[in-house]
């Protein structure tokens, strides 16, 4: 079952494809300029982008899987692939960041690095312009589509923009001070820049990986989301003599999964099963008005044991 409307799907795919292409271009250019300039900061930027390109290819595949819904191989659908991809991306970025930080500390300890500032500034101008453009595009489309994959890409581009802008600023400063009394600081600029960028941006991959892990472990979303789902289900079942109501919510990626157990009196009688199906349809429609990518399982029972949490005897 598709989670997104026909207009959102091509917009999401197009944005991810553009983002992936941008990562490849900047990554290749970064590696080449790192070889010319000897800058580890540029090498770090290039590696980040090549990593984003590699995971971007996986992201494009996951989008197609999520959009096609469930099947016999994955009866619960592919929703959990989204946090899996974001978790892999965050972990890899974190690993590169830690290695870059260790290299920067070693360089600072051993006297810094000599680089070619002219090539470094040229790369900084190219990368900063490209990254600012991509950050604006992905941020805009993330707000429009609500896609967690596009949102993750937008966050990566913001970090990328910060790195590229810092590279440009630092290397421009080298050109200014290299023939002054402060020329002794020039060898330390590149490793200091790498260390600064990593320390500033490392919270993004940490947060991304942690959030993905929690979604994969089925941790409940925010209390506000749970209360909203509970209130909607309660309102839709208001015509029934509900004795208790248990609502569970998880949200892997964009897909909000709601499981509702409606406890009714043992002597409750229904006219026909289609009336319950109609109630389910009404409840799902109301939930999707709040969050479009919602899946609902709604069970009716006379015994609260089927709905109550194993560690509690009360509803939400």
Task: Provide an overview of this structure.
By secondary structure, this protein is mainly alpha-helical. The protein has 2 domains: 8-216, Cation efflux protein transmembrane domain (Alpha-lytic protease prodomain-like); 223-306, Alpha-Beta Plaits. It is built from 9 helices and 3 strands. It has helices at residues 8-37, 40-68, 81-109, 117-145, 148-177, 186-201, 203-216, 223-236, 273-290; strands at residues 244-250, 256-263, 294-301. Strands 1-2-3 form a 3-stranded mixed sheet, covered by helices on one side. A hairpin with a 5-residue loop joins strand 1 (244-250) and strand 2.
Mean pLDDT: 85
The CATH architecture of the largest domain would be Up-down Bundle
- Count of discrete alpha- or pi-helical segments spanning 4 or more residues: 9
Class computed from helices, strands and strand pairing: mainly alpha
Contiguous low-pLDDT stretches (5 residues minimum) are 1-6
Furnish the topology, listing elements before pairings.
Elements: H1 8-37, H2 40-68, H3 81-109, H4 117-145, H5 148-177, H6 186-201, H7 203-216, H8 223-236, E1 244-250, E2 256-263, H9 273-290, E3 294-301
Parallel strand pairs: 2-3
Antiparallel strand pairs: 1-2
Helix pairs in contact: 1-2, 1-4, 2-3, 2-5, 3-6, 3-7, 4-5, 5-6, 8-9
């Amino acid at each position: 079952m598709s989670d997104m409307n026909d207009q959102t799907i091509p917009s999401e795919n197009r944005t991810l494809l553009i983002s992936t292409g941008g990562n490849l271009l900047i990554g290749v250019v970064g590696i080449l300029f790192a070889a010319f300039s000897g800058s580890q900061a540029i090498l770090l930027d290039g590696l980040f982008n090549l990593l984003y390109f590699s995971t971007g290819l996986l992201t494009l595949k996951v989008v197609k899987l999520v959009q096609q819904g469930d099947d016999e191989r994955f009866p619960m659908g592919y929703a959990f692939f989204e946090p899996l991809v974001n978790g892999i991306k965050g972990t890899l970025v974190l690993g590169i960041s830690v290695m870059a930080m260790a290299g920067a500390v070693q360089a600072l300890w051993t006297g810094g690095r000599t680089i070619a500032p002219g090539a470094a500034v040229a790369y900084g101008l190219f990368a900063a312009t490209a990254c600012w453009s991509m950050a604006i595009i992905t941020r805009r489309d993330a707000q429009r589509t609500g896609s967690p994959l596009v949102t993750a890409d937008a966050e990566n581009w913001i970090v990328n923009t910060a790195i590229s802008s810092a590279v440009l600023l630092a290397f421009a400063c080298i050109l200014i001070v290299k023939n002054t009394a402060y020329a002794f600081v020039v060898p330390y600029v590149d490793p200091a820049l790498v260390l600064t960028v990593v320390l500033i941006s490392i919270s993004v991959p940490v947060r991304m990986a942690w959030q993905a892990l929690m979604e994969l472990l089925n941790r409940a979303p925010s209390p506000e989301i749970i209360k909203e789902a509970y209130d909607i289900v309660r309102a839709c079942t208001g015509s029934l003599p509900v004795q208790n109501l248990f609502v569970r919510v998880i949200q892997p990626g964009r897909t909000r999964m709601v499981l509702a157990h409606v406890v009714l009196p043992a002597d409750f009688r229904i006219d026909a099963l289609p009336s319950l199906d109609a109630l389910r349809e009404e409840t799902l429609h109301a939930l999707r008005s709040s969050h479009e990518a919602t899946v609902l399982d709604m069970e009716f029972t006379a015994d609260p044991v089927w709905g109550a949490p194993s560690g509690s005897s009360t509803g939400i």
